[in-house]
Amino acid sequence: MYKGKYLCVYCGASERADPAYYQAAEELGKLIATNGFNMVYGGGRLGLMGRVSNSVVEHGGLVVGVTTEQLDEREGVQHGLHELHIVDTMHTRKLRMSEKADGFIIMPGGYGTLDEFFEILTWKQLGLHQKPIIIANINNYWDSLIALYNHVIETDFARKEHTHYVQVENTLEDVIKAAKQLLR
After folding, report:
1. Residue 182: CB partners within 8 Å, gap ≥ 6?
2. 1: pLDDT confidence band, cut at 50, 70 and 90?
3. What pTM does this model have?
4. Please, are residues 10 and 104 in contact by the beta-carbon 8 Å criterion?
């Protein structure tokens, strides 16, 4: 059963994005908590990161944040988390989040989100984990990334079986449904 499992949410910290993405982050947080999941994420208070974590807590889920001293000084950390870990490097941060996670959700974001996605995807390719990776393609935000992902496979820079390493969903309800199916 998936109850109590941790979903790692990678998403943006920008405060300048379309309000629709902030609303989606709040809805995702609600869906995570009300469907029995908990969340691990980068610990930030800004952008989608802050919105999704607040919403999980508000709806009764547990949230674990992992950040670095540098990010804490630059962006600040979210208050009200059940656990907050401040680590020395970004590498340690990403490793800690991945260790806590049972699965990964990729929400809209910037370069940091892309970095996290590609690292967790590469780790899966190398056999370092077999956890589900779900792209939340809200408002077709990730269409270009999905095209690139498929292009890498079609041009044989990744194996055909890697097509199944990532699941793409266009609604948050389908993201949670996929998480439930993949984490049974």
Report:
1. 103, 132, 134, 167
2. very low
3. 0.95
4. yes
